[in-house]
Write a structure and sequence with these properties.
single chain; 360 residues; mainly beta; Immunoglobulin-like; 4 domains; 6-stranded mixed beta sheet; 12% helix; elongated
Amino acid sequence: MKIMKIGHGGFHWGLRFISKLQRRPPASSIMMRLILQMPGIRKVIGAVLLLGLLTGLIMSCSRGPISLLGVVIERNTDPHKRSPIDGVEVTASLGSRISSVQTDSSGYFNLKLRGWMRNGQTIHLQFTHPGYRPVSMNVNLSDKLYVVDMEPVSLPATPKNDGPSTVISNVKIHYSMKAAATMNVGSAAKTFDVVNTGNVPCDGRLPCSPDGKWKASIGSLTVNAGQDNEFRNVRLSCIAGPCPFTKVQSDRYSKGGNEITASVLDWSDTTTFLLEAEVYHPMVTDVIEDSYPVIFGRTLNFSVPDTGEGVSIEADVNGELIVFPLGPGLYLSWANCTAAADKDHGKSYRCELKDGYNFP
């Protein structure tokens, strides 16, 4: 039986690797001396056990990158007012290694850690933002989701009640959406004749009647609806002559379109056909959409699709109905508004009342 020999240098490398992960002084010389002093088969068994220990530790480690996922929100006892915080600097420290990232408009962060790490290893996290008190914490490396509350540097001031307040009520949101539409701009009615003489044998000279017995003729008509227009509800009818002895030879009209063509086979005397259709012009129009915000305390929230334009807020101000265009600057005389893009292709708005204004 042959026993595989494991080099002295390989053991030293593995033990140095373990010591590095645990941040302890190298223990390779002690353990190696113990194994090398073992007689015969015990030396082999000790080497195998050490190799198993190395393998287990290596499998519990990851070279990265590993992602820490989480969200940063404003601390508030009212769960409806725990709004996301944009632009928070998130920093992770692992020994001398430092990684950082900023939260997006939804407060979300994805912090990537690189290098060798053990599951459960302690990492120091720090969250900073000019308008909030910094947060520091030590966490064990895992795939958990982090929800971090940050307290504003100065708490929102309580509205002053020195004088009568202005009541904002019956709030409604307006915005416009582009929508495809069509307009009926006219109609078309054209006739055409299919000239033929009946009861003339075909004798193999095409075109012939469907049974190949009688000489036939083909008549057709092509009509154009004009630039950017299209035909709809197209009808073809025989209005004169021996109509039963005719057949539509080519149907390039029934589905409509910018240009239509009708072809008819006639194997009797001359017939007359009428081609009719409505003419439509496609266009893009602005459709005004309405929605209602959700109000919690002194804050109203609403969202619009990402294709929504011209956002405005309609409200009763002390009983007088006024429409306030929001504009790109999100300015309102009675509220401070912010906007953030949503992951579902929309935009969320949040408006908080200024001093001197109240909801009913």
